[in-house]
Automatic annotation (TrEMBL):
It comes from Kaistella pullorum. This is Mevalonate kinase. Keywords: ATP-binding, Kinase, Nucleotide-binding, Transferase. The lineage of its organism: Bacteria, Pseudomonadati, Bacteroidota, Flavobacteriia, Flavobacteriales. Transmembrane segments: none annotated. The keyword S-adenosyl-L-methionine does not apply. Residues 84-153 form the GHMP kinase N-terminal domain. One of its GO terms (molecular function) is kinase activity. It comes from the Bacteria.
Length: 308
């Protein structure tokens, strides 16, 4: 296949919790995509991307990967010299996996062994997640490897715990009144600083306790209810999750959305949650009546990703 496309991803549930062994649920988002291409590097975008790839190739030279997941870094460098760049419309700093798609594309093209995503076993998925974590840590300082894994597999993935992941079937969407949607906060977020804030918070026993006893419980219950298509428990736990985030993840909530977040909780018309690390980019919304939520969120750019 020439120039395979790598789609963005959306982490529906599990932001920050997956660092502490909660479950997570993530799916590909084909609205945004990227692919490796060659060009004469005539535009600033192409030049910048090519230069970035060169720096990344230097990083790859310095790390050691397991033999079965080795990359042909010399071929990668030779292609960079010929004008390779990553042609992508995935917004950076929006929590939809811009670096994940890039890592997936590089692995697919330069992996020494030939892998077919559909034939990768559950044990190999676990190994591949670790490898992708190492490959993506260049961009974030520390990476779980989940984003590149989703982008590479191009399938919904259930994160069972810190180590194990598996393919999962998402209930078929239908043209109902309910929706899951993205809201554009109008600002980019940086993963590194947000994750740093989270680790600072984790130093306090009270925060660790509430994260484990409340956040992770609500998060896992949401995943269970969503996969079973049980909307009443889903929305009950979503509200708990949204309240918890409003109280404990305030620094990660873009300021432009504070009031809208609270308005959703007060009216029960919709509930908001972080999409990725927060700080900017997209926020996720869940509602049983999208028409009503849309009116209440007038002025914000929104994209529906799932109907029910």
């Amino acid at each position: 296949m020439t120039n395979p496309l790598f789609y963005a991803k959306i982490l529906l549930f599990g932001e920050y919790g997956i660092i502490e062994d909660s479950q997570g649920l993530t799916l590909p988002y084909s609205f945004y995509k990227g692919t490796l291409k060659f060009s004469d590097l005539n535009t600033d975008f192409e030049k910048k991307s090519n230069t970035s790839l060169g720096k990344y190739a230097d990083y790859l030279t310095d790390i050691t990967l397991p033999e079965k997941f080795e990359l042909d870094v010399n071929a990668f460098k030779a292609d960079i010299a010929k004008g390779l760049f990553f042609d992508s419309n995935i917004p950076q700093g929006y929590g939809v996996g811009s670096s994940g798609a890039l890592v997936a594309a590089i692995f697919e093209k330069y992996s020494v062994l030939d892998y077919q995503p559909e034939s990768i076993s559950k044990d190999e998925l676990k190994e591949l997640k670790k490898v992708f974590g190492l490959l993506e840590s260049y961009f974030h300082g520390k990476s779980s490897g989940i984003d590149p894994l989703i982008c590479y597999m191009n399938l919904p993935i259930l994160i069972e715990n810190r180590d194990n992941v598996d393919r999962v079937t998402i209930p078929q969407g239908e043209a109902g009144k309910g929706a899951i949607f993205l809201i554009d906060s109008g600002m980019t977020g940086e993963t590194g600083p947000m994750v740093q804030i989270f680790f600072e918070k984790m130093k306090t026993e009270g925060f660790r306790k509430t994260l484990k006893e409340e956040f992770i419980r609500y998060n896992n219950a949401c995943i269970d209810a969503f996969l079973k298509k049980e909307m009443t428990p889903l929305f009950r736990n979503l509200k708990n999750l949204s309240v918890w985030a409003y109280e404990h993840f305030k620094p990660m909530i873009p300021e432009s959305l504070y009031n809208a977040w609270k308005k959703g909780l007060d009216s029960n018309a919709y509930y908001l949650k972080l999409c990725g690390s927060g700080g900017g980019g997209y926020i996720l919304g869940f509602t049983r009546d999208y028409g009503k939520a849309e009116k209440m969120l007038a002025g914000f750019e929104k994209e529906v990703i799932y109907r029910f």
